[in-house]
Fold this sequence. Notes:
Strand content of chain A: under 5%
CATH topology of the largest domain in chain B: Rossmann fold
Order of helices and strands of chain B: HEHEHEHEEHEHEHEHEEHEEHEEH
Distance between the termini of chain A: 15 Å
Oligomer: heterodimer
Number of domains of chain B: 2
Number of helices of chain B: 11
Strand order of the largest sheet of chain B: 2-1-3-4-5-11
Strand order of the largest sheet of chain A: 1-2
Radius of gyration of chain A: 22 Å
CATH architecture of the largest domain in chain B: 3-Layer(aba) Sandwich
CATH superfamily of the largest domain in chain B: Response regulator
Largest interface: A-B, 36 and 36 residues
Radius of gyration of chain B: 23 Å
Helix content of chain A: over 70%
Largest sheet of chain B: 6 strands, parallel
Largest sheet of chain A: 2 strands, antiparallel
Strand content of chain B: 15-25%
CATH class of the largest domain in chain A: Mainly Alpha
Helix content of chain B: 25-40%
CATH topology of the largest domain in chain A: ABC transporter involved in vitamin B12 uptake, BtuC
Amino acid sequence: MIRLEKRPTPSRFWTAATPVLAVIATMVAGGLMFAALGKDPLEAIRTIFWDPLFHPQFAGYSRPQLLVKAGPLILIAIGLSLGFRAGVWNIGAEGQYIIGAICGAAVGLAFYPAAGWYIFPLMVIAGALGGFVWAMIPGILRTRFNTSEILVSLLLVYVAQALLASVALGVLRNPQGGGFPGSRNLAQYPAAANLELIPGTGMHWGVVAAFIAVIASFVLLQRHILGFNIRLSGQAPRAARFAGVSPTALVLTCLGVSGVLAGMAGLFEAAGPSGKISIDFASGYGFTAIIVAFLGRLNPVGILLAGLLMALTYIGGELAQFMLGLPKASIQAFQGMLLFFLLALDLTSNYRLRLAKREVA
Amino acid sequence: MIRRTLLATAALGMALAFGGVASAQALDKAKACFVYVGPIGDGGWTYQHHQGALAVKEAYGDKVEIAWQESVPEGADAERVLTQMALSGCNIIFTTSFGYMDPTNTVAAKFPNVKFEHATGFKRDHANVATYDARFYEGRAVIGHIAGKMTKSNKIGYIGSFPIPEVIQGINSYFLHAKKVNPAVEISVVWAYTWFDPAKEADAAKALIEQGVDVIAAHTDSTAPLAEAAKTPGVIGFGQASDMAAYKPSPRVASIIDNWAPYYVKRVGLLLDGTWEQAASWEGMPGGEVEIGEITEAVPADVKAEAEAMIAAITAGTYHPFTGPINKQDGSAWLKDGEVADDGTLAGMMFYVEGIKGDIPK
C-alpha cells in the first residue's frame, strides 16, 4: 500500500529532478508505443531528440528552426506566466495572438509598397496594441462585472478565428492573388518583413523579443515590487489586499502584459515565418504556450527551456514521421506522454511516497 | 592499369559534375515524397493521394522509395517540412493541398535539383515547380444531375470548404446540372472554412438537413457529412474525393473519385528517365483522374442510365459541363448558346451562375 505524505516544503531535489525523470519515462513509454507500431524504438527516439540537433544532414537547418518554433511559444508563455502566478487565468492567448497578427499585418499592408524604416516598428506597435485590446475585453469584464476571464478569453479565441477568416477573404486579401484567400506575402515586402537577422541562425525579431521577455520577466519577479505583488497575490490573496495591492490593477496589468506579448508574437509570425495572414494562420501557439508555461513551472528560465523542449518534440516529431513513416497521432501521443509524466511526477516534489503496511482493522 | 583507373575516376568525376548541373539526367533510384494536409485515414482527399503514392511504389518497386508526412498545417510549418524532406534526399516532392503554394515555391528556390509538384495551385515561380489539378467539376455535373432527379424537397445542399475557384466551379457545375433536370431546385451553400474537420463538416450537414435539404454534396475531405446524412432517412449524399463505399447503397448513392495514381506514376517515371519538365496539368475524366464510383440501386434505373450517358459524353470529350447558354448570377450573359468555357475563366472563377442565391464570401 502506497501512501502519500505531504512535505512541509517542496523538495528542491525533486523539483529539479522531475523534468529529467519525466523525459526518461516518456522515452520508455514512447519507445514501447513505437515498438508496438512495428518501428525500432531506439531509432524513433533518436530521430526525435537527437537528429534535429546533431544529424549531419538536418541539424544545420533544424537547429535554427528550433528557435523559430520556440520563439513565439516562449514569448506568449512568459506573458501568461505572470498572470498564472497571480491567479489571473488568460486562456485566450491564441485569440490575442491572432488579433495582434491581423492588426500588425494590416498596418504593414496599408503602407504597401512604400519603403521606410518606420513601417516595421509601427507594425510591432500595432500588433502589441491589437493583443492588448483583445486581452482588455476579458480584463474589463472581470473587473467591472466580475465575469470569469477564463471563459471570456477562451471564447474570444473563436471570435478571433472568425475575424481571421473574414479578413483573409476580405479587406486583407491579396488583390493580385487570383481570388484566393490570404494576404500579400509580408516576408517578400522588405519594409515589413521580419527576416532572419543573421542568415542561417533562425534569429528573427520575435526570437529576440522572446529572449528580452525572459530576462525582463526574471528581473521583474526577483527585483521589482510589481513582481512581488504578483507572487503575493497568487500565494496569499488576502495578504496582498492588506498590503495595498489593487486587485483591479493587477488583473488588468497581467492580462495586458500577456495580451501585448501574444499580439507581438502574432505579428512576428505573420511578418516572418508564416509571411501572410491566411485562414489557417493560427497554428495553436497560444494554447501550446499554456503547456509551456506550466512545463517551465511559471519560471522564466524554466519557460525558456520548456519552449525549446516543445519545439524539439515538434521538429523531431516531423522528422520521425517522414523518415520512419510514423503516424502523426503517435507523435501527438508522445508529446502528451511528456506532459502526463511531468505532471504526475510533480507529485513527488510536494509529497513523499511512503510504503505502509495495511493496518488490521 | 593505373591509366584505366585514372580514366574511370575522371569519368566518374565528370558524371558527378554533370549530374549535379543538368536536370535532364536519368536516375537509377528516386525518392518520391508526399505532403498531406489531413490524416491518411480521412477516407477522402488525403487517402486518395496516398493511394497514388502507393501506386508509384507498386509501379517502380525497388527503383523508388516513397516517404510521406500527414496532417501538415498549411502555414509556416509546411516550409520546414518541405525543407527537411529536400534535405533528406527526396528527388521529387508532391505537395497535395492548395495552401502549400507559397512554401512550395519558396523551398523550390533553395533546392533547384529537387522537383516540386503542387496540387491545385497556379504559381510556378521556378523551373523545378510543376502544378497539377483535376477537373472535379466534371464529376460535379454527374452528381448534380442525380441530385436534381432525386430531391423531393427541391432543396439541395453543398458544403463548401473555402471560397476559391476550384470550389466555386464545383458549386456551379453541380447546380447547373440539377437545375437542368429540375427547374424548381434550389441550392444552399454552407462554408466550413476547413478541408478536414469532421465535427464542423457534420455540423454543416446538420444545418443543411434542418433547412429541408435532402441531397448533400461536400467539398471537404472527411466522411462526416455522409455519416450525418445517414441519421436522417430520405437524405442522400455522395462520396467525395474517395469512393466512401462504407455508406453504400444509401446515403452514398454515387461518388466522385480523385484518381491521382496515373499522374503520379507518369511524373515519377519522367523523373527516372530524366525527362521531367515543368508543366501545368489539368486532367479530368478522359485521362482517368476523375471517376464516378458505383451508382447504387437507390438511384432509379433511368436516372442511372442518364448519368452514365453523361459520363460517357464527358469522357469522350463531346460534352463540356460549362456549355452555354449560361448566365451569371446577376443575369448578365456569360456563355452564348453552344459556347464552351475557357480554362482561364474557370481557373479564376469567382462568380455564381444564375439561380444560386446568396453571395460568395468576400
